[in-house]
Amino acid sequence: MSQLNGPFSGGPTLNDGATMPWLGLGVWQAKDGDEVIHAVKTALETGYRSIDTAAGYKNEEGVGQAIRESGVPREELFITTKLWNGDQGYESALKAFEVSRKKLGLDVLDLYLIHWPVAGKYRDSWKALVHLQKEGLVKSIGVSNFQPHHLQEIIDDTGVVPAVDQVEFHPLLTQRELLKYAKAHDIQVEAWSPLMQGNLDLPVLQEMAGKYGKTPAQIVLRWDLQQGVITIPKSVHAERIVENAGFFDFTLSDEDVKVLEDLNQNHRFGPDPDNFDF
């Protein structure tokens, strides 16, 4: 794994040899059209090079337009999208990928993820992603919201280990078992909702923000980084997008990392992958 350098230069090396930035812009709930275009362009102007969208977000066309209009060379970008639940299965996943690729206006995607482990379908979906990677249509393949038992099943089926598992991860949901499994299998963990959907009013975060001269958001994002977890905070506000990149110029003490880890309550702001009606 590479050094914890700046947000816009380098990042961890995935198990397939690709390099993924430590920081990306998430665009969940960003409306297609002007809102998502502005957010993506702002991020790219700030220096972000990783953009995370999904078929389920219904804004891939706007993301694609922003990428084209930004003027940033394609080879500098790392673009992720995801297979939606209703499109899971082998053939349907291949078709859904083509739809996403056309909406984004990209020949090759950097990372394609299965969005949720839909029972009875995610194993066939994974086989489709393996095929897409072999065909050279996507550089890296992975999953989102998979627990260790889901991961083990698809690895056993195909022998192909996901490069990334994107999960809800923050101080109230530290996912220790998953992190341990991922490390043992060389799977890169990526955090969605790292900022707890804005629930940053914990006294300890306010205290640390004062101590380090940073915002509570920057404290949490730095905590992600020091655990080797990629982070994709979502925002459509320019000042937040800029602020969220400001966590590479300081280091939390080991004691403070532990303090934040000890906040864990196994509390989810999003659905539980093992108890969710897909």
TrEMBL record:
Residues noted as binding substrate in the record, renumbered to the chain: 115
Q: Name one Pfam family in it.
A: Aldo_ket_red
The UniProt keywords, alphabetically, are: NADP, Oxidoreductase
Q: Does the keyword Cytoplasm apply?
A: no
Q: Name one GO molecular function term.
A: oxidoreductase activity, acting on the CH-OH group of donors, NAD or NADP as acceptor
Task: Say if the entry is tagged with keyword Oxidoreductase.
Answer: yes
* NADP-dependent oxidoreductase domain location: 23-264
Q: Where is this site: Lowers pKa of active site Tyr?
A: 82
InterPro entries listed in its UniProt record: AKR, AKR5G, Aldo/ket_reductase_CS, NAD(P)_OxRdtase_dom_sf, NADP_OxRdtase_dom
What SUPFAM superfamilies does the database record attribute to this sequence?
NAD(P)-linked oxidoreductase
Residues of the active site:
57 (proton donor)
Q: Which family does it belong to?
A: Belongs to the aldo/keto reductase family.
Protein name, entry field: Glyoxal reductase
Q: What is the lineage of its organism?
A: Bacteria, Bacillati, Bacillota, Bacilli, Bacillales
